[in-house]
Specification:
The complex is a heterodimer. Chain A has four helices and twelve strands, in the order βαββαββββαβββββα. Chain A is α+β, with helices and mostly antiparallel strands. Chain B has five helices and four strands; from the N terminus they run H-H-H-E-E-H-E-H-E. In chain B, about 0% of the residues are buried. Classes of the chains: A alpha+beta, B mainly alpha.
């Protein structure tokens, strides 16, 4: 059965929760984990858990935590190729695609859909909702669209609930340290051998008296 | 007459002070001891020869490290609704170790089975040997009762064991001979 990690957020969840955070962690082999965390009032614990489950049917339950008057429902999923997800696209220009470059470039595009089922009065409150999209990439993030708060490898978008469909994209680069170290090791050893050979040859050469 | 070379402080105490002495051995401090210990420890380290073999091993280690780092992304292992996210490289190592354990257990089991089989064969052979001896004894008694006698004939090769072995019958009359 093909499972979908397409994020379709029920508007009722956005409206009744204090905060919804969608976190995507992308790794160098384009695998990754995606987690959804909904925080709301503990009186709505069951509803928030249900809405979060409806939103993330193919996810695993990562627990519900009640602290004081707040409830936090978390669900997560792990996929070996984030590019296979519906609505998402993950690419990497790694050593296979660009063998003569020492830098790997990653790109990520995702589409977030909000499922509006509320009435006009509820929809009027859409801009007030707090919806956060966090993305962690395997390299330093260079560019984001729309603009986001970037902190090294992590970008955070604070999206309102007033748009039915939102597409975000980001690109990141990282140095191929493993290839660099192996290259330096091999070249350094060859240089050392060549130097030792030349020095040995120079010692064996007869000197003029 | 005063000694002019002695100078103005030619008192016995000053003379004692000026007298050259051998410097006493000072006990080394904590830092000096630590440095000495580090030096002794590093002197014990013998670096491998910088040949192609060492280079190859180093390259292999680097490639392995790169493999581990490149496969550090987590993989989810599900079990009855519970799950754990573990780095793929660690999962590889665990599966490799489990494979080694399985192979070792199978080998131990096979060795035990082979040993028990060998013991069973030995016991069967021992039983068979006793039975054969009993049969030979019965046959010899029957022959004695019939009056068959054996004559020991020395072999040309001088093999004492073969010469001592009693053989009878008309098939090969050149070596053993039986007379009734």
């Amino acid at each position: 059965m093909r499972t979908s990690l397409l994020i379709t957020i029920p508007f009722v969840l956005l409206l009744n929760s204090d905060r919804v955070v969608v976190s995507t962690h992308m790794y160098g082999d384009l695998s990754g984990t995606r987690a959804v965390q909904s925080t709301g009032d503990s009186s709505l614990a069951d509803e928030i858990r249900t809405w979060t489950r409806e939103m993330t049917r193919a996810f695993d339950d990562a627990g519900t935590h009640v602290t004081g008057d707040a409830v936090v429902a978390v669900r997560s999923a792990q996929r070996n190729d984030l590019g296979d997800l519906d609505g998402a696209q993950a690419d990497a220009a790694d050593i296979v695609q660009e063998p003569f470059s020492l830098i790997t470039t990653y790109t990520w595009t995702d589409t977030i859909t909000i499922n509006y089922l509320g009435n006009d009065k509820e929809q009027a409150a859409a801009p007030l909702t707090d919806f956060e999209y966090r993305l962690t990439m395997p390299g330093v993030i260079n560019s984001t669209d729309p603009p986001a708060e970037v902190n090294g490898r992590t970008a955070v978008w604070r999206l309102g609930g007033d748009q039915e469909e939102q597409t975000i994209s980001a690109s990141a680069t990282t140095v191929r340290w493993d290839a660099v170290i192996i290259l330096v090791y091999a070249v350094g050893y060859l240089a050392w051998r060549l130097t030792a050979f030349l020095a040995h040859r120079a010692r064996l050469r007869p000197r003029k008296i | 007459m005063a000694n002019e070379d002695a100078g103005p402080e030619a008192t016995p105490a000053a003379e004692e002070k000026r007298r050259p002495r051998a410097a006493g051995a000072r006990k080394p401090g904590a830092v000096a001891r630590a440095i000495e210990r580090c030096r002794a420890w590093t002197e014990r380290i013998s670096l491998p020869p910088a040949d192609w073999r060492t280079f190859g091993w180093g390259l292999l280690v680097l490639i392995l490290l790169a493999f581990i780092i490149r496969n550090w992304a987590p993989v989810r292992i599900n079990l009855f609704g519970w799950y754990v996210d573990a780095p793929r490289a660690i999962v590889f190592v665990i599966i490799f170790l489990l494979g080694m354990l399985t192979a070792w257990l199978l080998e131990v089991r096979g060795r035990k089975a082979a040993e028990s089989e060998a013991e069973a064969e030995t016991a069967a052979a021992a039983d068979a040997g006793e039975t054969a001896e009993e049969a030979e004894a019965v046959e010899a008694e029957a022959m004695e009762a019939e009056g068959v006698e054996f004559e020991e004939v020395e072999l040309a090769g001088g093999d004492d064991d073969l010469a001592a072995e009693p053989t009878f019958g008309d098939e090969d009359t050149s070596v053993p001979r039986a007379r009734s």
